[in-house]
Amino acid sequence: MLVNAVRLPVAEAAKQPPSQSTSQSALSECVSRTVRRYLADIGDAECSEGLHAMVLREVEGPLLREVMAFHEGNQSRAATALGINRATLRKKLAIYGLL
């Protein structure tokens, strides 16, 4: 079941590849749009750390911050929501300076 799923307007859906034209979550669409814009901006230039690593780094910090805020700083509940171990969450929070 998709949570926070949205249907793209017909004109927008027509621009999407066939596998994406039916229904795409709002988060997925946001990531797709942002990555397309980033790739258009950089052209053929290479990302020094690799695009995958850069996207994960850019997304993980805000994700952790928002989930921690939603769970009012409760690391156990945040870890459960994220599907990770509490020790792993603490390690990631330290990396991003969120402790």
UniProtKB/TrEMBL annotation:
It comes from the Bacteria. Keywords: DNA-binding. Gene3D superfamilies: Homeodomain-like. Residues 56-94 form the DNA binding HTH domain. The keyword Amino-acid biosynthesis does not apply. Belongs to the transcriptional regulatory Fis family. This is Putative Fis-like DNA-binding protein. It comes from Rhodanobacter ginsenosidimutans.
